[in-house]
Sequence to fold (186 residues):
Amino acid sequence: MTTWLILLAAVVQAQTPVPGCARRGDAAALAARPSPLDSAQVTVAGAVLKVCYGRPSVRGRQVAGELVPYGQPWRLGANEPTTLHLPVAAEIAGVRVAPGSYSLYVVASEREWEVHVNRAVSRWGIPIDAAVQADDVGKGSVPVEQISPPVEMLTLSFAPPSGNGTELVVEWERLKVRIPIRRLGG
Fold:
């Protein structure tokens, strides 16, 4: 009985909506999603930066060039758009932004990802069409690294801060991408 309660608590905790991350649906609908919700945060020069995203799994599929298509916009996660919350002015992949919340999507190639910073945060993650792209603040490019062993579930994390900056680290299957984020001003 004790083991069953521990497992039940772990499942409930894993499916609990992430505080500060806007998601559609009630708790039962969120728990039924195959791509669980997650978030990561880091403090950079006194400011707390947070990313909210859905975590799809590889499940034997090809990520590079297929699940993450080359030359087409991809939502950088599952379900709602991946959203970065910044309480301060910052630079994301070279794109200057005011304090606020921004969605991220990418256009991938084999060697680099074009990271798009977008104002639209209250939409579903797809399609990323001309109407969504009209809300782009800007874009920057970052190199793709190959990693081993593979990572089954899409994982976004922050590198330890250095001065006024950090990196949003994206890992999935054998891919790793580092998106630089730098706090502007004091």
Q: What stands out?
A: Residues 1-17 have pLDDT under 50 and may be disordered. The longest helix spans residues 2-15. Helices lie at 2-15, 27-32, 130-133. The radius of gyration is 17 Å.
